[in-house]
From TrEMBL, chain A:
<dbReference type="InterPro" id="IPR043154">
    <property type="entry name" value="Sec-1-like_dom1"/>
</dbReference>
<keyword id="KW-0813">Transport</keyword>
<dbReference type="GO" id="GO:0012505">
    <property type="term" value="C:endomembrane system"/>
</dbReference>
<keyword id="KW-0653">Protein transport</keyword>
<dbReference type="InterPro" id="IPR043127">
    <property type="entry name" value="Sec-1-like_dom3a"/>
</dbReference>
<comment type="similarity">
    <text>Belongs to the STXBP/unc-18/SEC1 family.</text>
</comment>
<dbReference type="GO" id="GO:0031410">
    <property type="term" value="C:cytoplasmic vesicle"/>
</dbReference>
<dbReference type="InterPro" id="IPR001619">
    <property type="entry name" value="Sec1-like"/>
</dbReference>
<dbReference type="GO" id="GO:0015031">
    <property type="term" value="P:protein transport"/>
</dbReference>
Automatic annotation (TrEMBL), chain B:
<dbReference type="GO" id="GO:0048278">
    <property type="term" value="P:vesicle docking"/>
</dbReference>
<dbReference type="GO" id="GO:0098629">
    <property type="term" value="P:trans-Golgi network membrane organization"/>
</dbReference>
<dbReference type="GO" id="GO:0031201">
    <property type="term" value="C:SNARE complex"/>
</dbReference>
<comment type="similarity">
    <text>Belongs to the syntaxin family.</text>
</comment>
<dbReference type="GO" id="GO:0006886">
    <property type="term" value="P:intracellular protein transport"/>
</dbReference>
<dbReference type="InterPro" id="IPR000727">
    <property type="entry name" value="T_SNARE_dom"/>
</dbReference>
<dbReference type="GO" id="GO:0000149">
    <property type="term" value="F:SNARE binding"/>
</dbReference>
<dbReference type="GO" id="GO:0006906">
    <property type="term" value="P:vesicle fusion"/>
</dbReference>
<keyword id="KW-0611">Plant defense</keyword>
């Protein structure tokens, strides 16, 4: 149950099957990302894959018959047509064709008819049809999958394909549970089920004692998590700087050197990152200081190269030294930029208020805090919007709800009309009516007592009070207490025991905060393995765009466009 | 990691397609059909494909390096077993043969490394003339080969230096054990030198002579051995420095496949821009040409004017 390993094994197998000799890897835009996430260039070069090309760059590629060509493509119509063209006038010696998903017989026939010169050696389906981000986290990089609160049809089929490919790659034929309150979750579950039954032969794996579970959730049930500022390294970098396929763009950082304009944050190659990605911002500070100290010690050793002994030591440790210096400069840049932005935008105060709104229920006090922050010029308008959206979700039905006043304040701060409309959009998307579960846990007596106890003890860390809703859902699922009324099974079979292998998929995107949660659950809960996936991985910005397409063309139930008067 | 093979289906379909095309073409073939299809000019076809089907000549170099690398690996294994033997199972007789073998092996390996390095350089030089894509290919190949060689050489260096360390340790130990012996030698020497005039007639007994000579020979031998190894390490350092420029750091953005592809397309775009710029310059050149022609005409006319006046 390691998605990175699964995709990596597929790629390794492709390379092995083509035997020795120089190879070129021919991919499309999607598979390029799939492969890049699991294989570093230097690593794949060692396996004699020396050239990487895109299938749609046909004209600029030259004929090189001495190369073997491994093609890894998604089975789309365009790709099949492009590949058929390629086969009619082959540029490389032999072709080993791999599709990332189930391909129809007609498409195979088109290719077979195009292959006059009999250059094709292998045609196979290798189900690496998703982006493996971390061992327990995958994404499909589909933004805005929800349109007018319904599935956009191509997105639905792509999501179902990606999800079944994941199941195949980790060899699981699961029982499917979905969130009853969400129509989209039901549709997706239905689609996945249909694909499994249509390809029953593929899904015949060795039976385990306890069947794996696929749980399909909807982002609409928990719109709070993507609204919050995060303070663990990975999540924070995504929130503040934005991670795109493990790459972050630092070109906007003032005074950045040319080498660091775009950097890679990958737990696979970067030891420091893999150790610290789930640490909180404060701990990162001390760890990076330790890293610096160690580095300084090493570099001091390296400055005095006098005797042959020194020289020898230097050369022996030089590759590690170089790698370390790259790591150090990267992380120091990233962390210093983070702390600069935190100070500049007053993110600590903002985050404290956010957490209070999400977890406490002191309405008048919180309203006051928001108003104070509104006065503060350092706070970004985006963060103010974030706060008002949170407030709207939290106190949707509160008697003294002052949304009108807050939106008016936003207007005075110069926030544009369509941004202000987001406050209503988030209510439409994730408000009371859309939710199937108790997001703020006000009714649960256990939680009430816990909260009172917490108030007595005092909170440990005010910035990390909030737990995503996924925490309680997974907790119930693992204990076998998840209510069947809210999360019914697709099909007749039901799980009697506690589940062992769980795959959670969130329609509308997951967040790195949830990824961290799953990571800790995997480590602390014995005998349970969880994989988390989402149509995409959100930060506040991407979530806003998701929201705006989701509610587009939807007749709003909130007639008071109160910001306007 | 489930997979599904479609190769058989594909080959079946391909054969069917080829067959049906055959039948179809036989039906239309009649006496008036040309033996070769006219659409393809045979001479042109061969001429144009020859250059592209033949692999560039540096490809042989790659195979050579790979072969050499496998040889180096084998040699290194042999050498390390020799080292072990030499260190752990000292025989009573002076193991000159063994030392000699080690020396030869070490030299050979170092030579092979230099050869590999030279070959890598040759590849990167030769590929300069190739097309853009060939160059890209060769850059990748060179970087991967360089990494391989570097890894091997660093392994080799490590084994050499541990051997060296052990050798030194052993010497120290032997000094410890046989210390008094050497001390006695020294005393003997002093005795001989200092007491020269006192007991002149004693002189060197042949036995003592032998002892002293043996000792110095041994010391010299050891020193030579150590020197040899440090020299081989130094040689390797040069190779190492040379190759390190060709290697991309692991974990950096340059080590991403997608970044490289995007960058390549960016490079192509940039190239196009450069070309367009060059074209502009070329056009400017044409203007220059016209200016020159006009200037010549003017000079001519002036000459004619002068000629007619005078």
């Amino acid at each position: 149950m390691n998605v990175i390993l699964a995709v990596k094994q597929y790629v390794s197998k492709m390379i092995e099957e083509s035997g020795p000799g120089m190879k070129v890897l021919l991919m499309d835009a999607d598979t390029t990302v799939f492969v890049s996430m699991v294989y570093a260039k230097s690593e794949i070069l060692q396996k004699e894959v020396y050239l990487f090309e895109k299938i749609d760059s046909g004209a600029s590629r030259e004929s090189m018959k001495h190369l073997k060509c491994i093609t890894f493509l998604r089975p789309t119509k365009e790709n099949v047509a492009l590949l058929a063209n390629e086969l009619k006038a082959p540029k490389y010696g032999l072709y080993y064709i791999y599709f990332s998903n189930v391909i129809s017989k007609q498409d195979v026939k088109i290719l077979a008819e195009a292959d006059d010169q009999e250059v094709v050696r292998e045609v196979q389906e290798f189900y690496g049809d998703y982006i493996a981000v971390n061992p327990h986290l995958f994404s499909l990089n589909i933004s805005n999958c929800c349109q007018s609160l319904r599935w956009a049809q191509p997105m639905l089929s792509r999501t179902a394909q990606g999800l079944t490919a994941l199941l195949l790659s980790v060899k699981k034929c699961p029982m499917i549970r979905y969130q009853n309150s969400s129509e989209m979750a039901r549709e997706l579950a239905d689609n996945v089920k249909r694909i499994i039954t249509n390809n029953a032969a593929l899904f015949e794996f060795r039976r385990t004692d306890v069947a794996p579970v696929l749980l399909i959730l909807d982002r609409r049930d928990d719109a709070v998590t993507p609204l919050l500022n995060q303070w663990t390294y990975e999540a924070m970098v995504h929130e503040v700087l934005g991670i795109e396929n493990s790459k972050i763009n630092l070109s906007k950082v003032p005074g950045i050197s040319k080498d660091l304009k775009e950097v890679l944050l990958s737990a696979e190659t970067d030891e420091f990152y893999s150790e610290n990605m789930y640490q909180s911002f404060g701990e990162i500070g001390t760890n990076i200081k330790n890293l610096m100290d160690e580095f300084q010690k090493q570099s001091k050793n390296h400055t005095k190269v006098e005797s042959i002994q020194d020289m020898k030591n230097f050369i022996e440790n030089y590759p590690q030294f170089r790698k370390m210096s790259g790591t150090v400069s990267k992380h120091v840049t990233v962390v210093s930029e983070l702390s600069r932005l935190v100070g500049l935008y007053n993110l600590l105060n903002v985050s404290e208020t956010e957490q209070e709104i999400a977890c406490q229920s002191d309405h008048s006090n919180q309203l006051q805090q928001i108003k104070v922050l509104m006065e503060n010029d350092k706070v970004r308008p985006m963060d103010l919007l974030r706060l008002v959206m949170l407030y709207a979700l939290r106190y949707e039905a509160h008697t003294n709800n002052d949304m009108v006043g807050l939106i008016d304040l936003l207007k005075r701060k110069g926030i544009s009309e369509d941004k202000r409309a987001m406050v209503h959009a988030v209510l439409e998307y994730g408000g009371r009516k859309a939710r199937g579960s108790d997001l703020f846990r006000s009714g649960d007596p256990v939680n009430i007592t816990r909260r009172i106890l917490q108030n007595l003890k005092g909170v440990e860390n005010v910035y990390t009070q909030h737990q995503p809703l996924l925490a309680s859902t997974l907790d119930q699922l693992i204990k076998g207490k998840l209510k069947e009324a809210s999360y019914p099974y697709m099909g007749a079979n039901q799980l009697k025991d506690r589940p062992q292998d769980v795959i959670v998929f969130i329609i509308g995107g997951c967040t790195y905060a949830e990824s961290k949660l799953v990571h800790t659950l995997n480590r602390t809960t014995h005998g349970v393995k969880i994989i988390l996936g989402g149509t995409t991985i959100h930060n506040f910005e991407s979530f806003l765009s998701e929201l705006s397409t989701a509610v587009k063309g939807q007749a709003t139930k909130y007639p008071a466009r109160t910001g306007r008067h | 990691m489930a997979t599904r093979g479609l190769t058989e289906v594909f080959i079946l379909m391909r054969n069917n397609a080829l067959q049906s095309r055959h039948i179809f073409s036989e039906q239309t073939a009649d006496d008036r059909m040309a033996l070769m299809s006219t659409s393809l000019d045979p001479e042109l076809g061969i001429a144009s494909t020859r250059s592209s089907t033949l692999p560039p000549d540096w490809v042989d170099g790659v195979e050579e390096i790979q072969f050499e690398a496998s040889r180096i690996k084998r040699k290194m294994k042999e050498l390390s077993s020799l080292h072990d033997k030499h260190l752990n199972r000292p025989t009573l007789d002076d193991n000159v043969d063994e030392e000699h073998a080690i020396e030869i092996q070490t030299q050979e390996i170092t030579q092979m490394f230099t050869r590999c390095q030279r070959l890598v350089h040759q590849i990167s030089n030769k590929s300069q003339q190739g097309t853009a894509q060939e160059r890209k290919l060769s850059i990748n190949i060179v970087s991967s080969l360089a990494r391989m060689i570097q890894e091997m050489s660093s392994n080799f260096r490590k084994s050499q230096s541990t051997y060296l360390k052990k050798l030194k340790n052993r010497e120290e130990r032997s000094l410890q054990y046989f210390g008094p012996n050497i001390g006695a030698d020294a005393a003997l020497m002093e005795d001989l030198m200092g007491g020269d005039d006192v007991v002149y007639d004693r002189g060197f007994s042949s036995k003592q002579m032998q002892l002293v000579e043996e000792n110095t020979a041994q010391v010299q031998h050891r020193e030579k051995e150590i020197l040899q190894i440090t020299r081989s390490i130094q040689d390797l350092n040069e190779i190492f420095k040379d190759l390190s420029t060709m290697i991309v750091d692991q974990g950096s953005i340059l080590d991403r496949i997608d970044y490289n592809i995007e960058h390549a397309s960016y490079g192509v775009e940039k190239g196009l821009q450069q070309l367009q710029k060059a074209e502009k310059y070329q056009k400017k050149n044409r203007k220059m040409y016209i200016v020159m022609v006009l200037a010549v005409i003017i000079i001519l006319l002036i000459i004619i004017l002068i000629a007619t006046k005078s």
